[in-house]
Specification:
Layout lengths: L1 H5 L1 H27 L2 H27 L14 H29 L7 H26 L4 H32 L3 H4 L2 H13 L1 H14 L6 H17 L4 E9 L2 E9 L9 H15 L5 E9 L7
Parallel strand pairs: 2-3
Antiparallel strand pairs: 1-2
Family: Belongs to the cation diffusion facilitator (CDF) transporter (TC 2.A.4) family.
Pfam families: Cation_efflux (PF01545)
Organism: Pseudonocardia acidicola
């Protein structure tokens, strides 16, 4: 608890863990009692979220330990690695649910107590919206793990909205005497929603793999870096500059090479250190931990 108080990101993730645990128990019990495959799927998804959220807390704690002899560049790679694991697990669950739903449809559907299902969907949608908005606010200035958690909750909220619409349709069909058609609503919604929801883990997987593979960061971050490096290049009249960067968790790895000629305003070690300080000050507002190497050469082949 003391550690989570020191790190708001961890506290936000723990809130997600506790809410997911309570939500999972209620969903599974409710779904089994009324015979809804979709609500059971919602509960299983929440149970998976509990384990993955705990893994995210552990990864965040590990990443914040910083560099040492074993991890000379830091442990931030644990953050995107956890996002990849989360994406694979949730994607697998969605595929499993999709296959099961198709089987139910082929067997003639499933009878569900639609009135109780509608009540569940209303409560689930409200709870999911509150938690996702809370995590989005925390993630705006926090780690990628919190933003990934917020995306997961928002996806779950959209799922609950789909559940609400579907069960409302089933209730109407029952009331107007089309119970046979209503039997297809529950497995039909599982198939549609699990297929649509695959977007969330797919997006998380792509973003996590980019960082695990140390690819360049998203265009918005890259452009901010290039703009600041160009400013320094012009200010000190360097012949050229070369920027290489990648984002790993909450850390930006940056290598900047300046080509120096006779017209450049920085020509010695002290002046080069002044350039480094200017770069540090310009990049500080980006809000990431930075591992930065700045080099200077009179021969551009050493910068390529």
């Amino acid at each position: 608890m003391e550690w989570s108080a020191r790190f708001p990101d961890a506290r936000a993730l723990l809130v997600s863990v506790w809410v997911s645990a309570g939500f999972a128990v209620v969903s599974l019990a409710w779904g089994l009692v009324i015979g809804s495959q979709l609500i059971v799927f919602d509960g299983l998804y929440s149970f998976a979220g509990v384990g993955l959220s705990l893994l995210a807390v552990l990864a965040l704690r590990t990443a914040r330990k910083g560099p040492d002899e074993r991890y000379p560049w830091g442990r931030e790679v644990w953050e995107p690695l956890t996002i990849v694991i989360k994406a694979v697990a949730l994607g697998g669950l969605c595929i499993y649910a999709l296959i099961g739903a198709i089987g139910e449809l082929l067997r003639g559907g499933r009878e569900v107590a639609a009135g109780w299902a509608v009540l569940y969907a209303i409560l689930a949608t409200g709870a999911g919206l509150v938690v996702s908005l809370y995590l989005r606010r925390r993630g705006g200035q926090g780690s990628d793990l919190v933003r990934a958690e917020a995306a997961e909750w928002m996806g779950d909220t959209l799922l609950s909205l789909g559940v609400l619409a579907g069960f409302a349709l089933a209730l109407v069909l029952e009331r107007i005497g089309h119970s046979d058609a209503a039997r297809y609503v529950d497995p039909g919604m599982v198939a549609l929603i699990s297929a649509a929801f695959l977007r969330v883990p797919a997006r998380l997987l792509v973003s996590g793999l980019r960082e695990v593979l140390t690819m360049s960061p998203e265009p918005a971050i890259s452009e901010q870096l290039r703009s600041r490096v160009r400013d320094v290049e012009c200010r000190y009249r360097f012949a050229e500059s070369f920027l290489r960067t990648s984002k790993v968790g909450s850390r930006l790895d940056i290598e900047i090479d300046f080509v120096v000629d006779t017209a450049s305003k920085a020509q010695n070690v002290r002046e080069f250190d002044a350039v480094r300080q200017d770069l540090h000050d310009l990049l500080q507002p980006l809000g990431y931990e930075k591992s930065m190497i700045v080099s200077f050469t009179a021969d551009r082949r050493w910068a390529l």
